[in-house]
Structures are given as structure tokens and as C-alpha cells.
């Protein structure tokens, strides 16, 4: 993905925040775009966004995926496995789409 595509994604997430407010999901997606824009590095800004998302939802899927990716990248197999297990646990406990009232 080119940097301008990350910029467009960040604009879209900013627009979504204006409509829906700052949600853990939007924060997680924003952190992910910034992570790849920063060359797959967690900067202090990204860490702050991730911390805020996890403060609101300790199982926020995008942030948990970033944490697992970073752990694998840094050859921290035990941590990566633990985070991946947490992601799977969160997915199992999440309500099915058909169970969510619209």
C-alpha cells in the first residue's frame, strides 16, 4: 500500500470518528494504518492510540493483531502465542452478527 493510501485510510477513520465518536475499533484501525505507514514500527503515537483502544476494550481485535504481529517480528514466540490465544478467545466470546440487534 502506498503512503497516500494510508493517508486516505486515516482520513476515513477521522471522518468515522466525527460520525460515531472515538471507538476502540476506530482507534485500532487508525493504529494499524499508522503502524504500516511508519514502516511496521510502533511509535509513541501508535502506542498511545493502542493504549487508549485497549483501555476501552481489552480485546480490541486490530490492536491485539498488531501486538501479535510485533511479537512475531521480534521473535517473541511465547508472547505472540499468548496474544494470538487472546484474540481467538475474544472471537469465540463475541456475539454472532445474527445475534446483534440493529
What does this protein look like?
This protein has 102 residues and is mainly α. The protein contains five helices and no strands. It has helices at residues 3-20, 24-37, 44-56, 61-73, 77-93. Helix 2 (24-37) runs antiparallel to helix 3 (44-56). The longest helix is centred in the first third of the chain and has 18 residues, at 3-20. The model is unreliable at 97-102 (pLDDT under 50).
Spatial separation of the terminal alpha carbons? 34 Å
Shape designation? globular
Give the SSE string: HHHHH
What is the tally of beta strands? 0
What average pLDDT do the residues reach? 83
Rg, please? 14 Å
Percent helix, as a range, is over 70%
Q: Which structural category do the helix and sheet elements fall into?
A: mainly alpha
Counted by DSSP, the helix tally is 5
Largest sheet: none
Q: How much of the residues is beta strand, in percent?
A: under 5%
Task: Tag the structure with descriptive keywords.
102 residues; mainly alpha; disordered C terminus
Quick description:
Helix content is 74%, strand content 0%. It is mainly α and 102 residues long.
Describe the SSE topology.
Elements: H1 3-20, H2 24-37, H3 44-56, H4 61-73, H5 77-93
Helix pairs in contact: 1-2, 2-3, 2-4, 4-5
Amino acid at each position: 500500500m502506498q503512503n497516500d493510501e494510508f493517508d486516505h485510510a486515516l482520513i476515513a477513520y477521522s471522518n468515522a470518528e466525527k460520525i460515531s465518536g472515538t471507538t476502540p475499533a476506530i482507534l485500532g484501525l487508525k493504529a494499524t494504518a499508522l503502524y504500516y505507514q511508519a514502516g511496521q514500527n510502533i511509535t509513541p503515537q501508535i502506542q498511545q492510540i493502542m493504549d487508549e483502544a485497549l483501555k476501552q476494550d481489552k480485546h480490541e481485535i486490530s490492536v491485539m493483531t498488531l501486538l501479535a504481529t510485533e511479537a512475531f517480528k521480534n521473535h517473541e514466540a511465547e508472547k505472540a502465542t499468548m496474544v494470538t490465544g487472546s484474540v481467538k478467545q475474544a472471537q469465540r466470546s463475541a456475539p454472532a452478527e445474527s445475534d446483534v440487534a440493529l
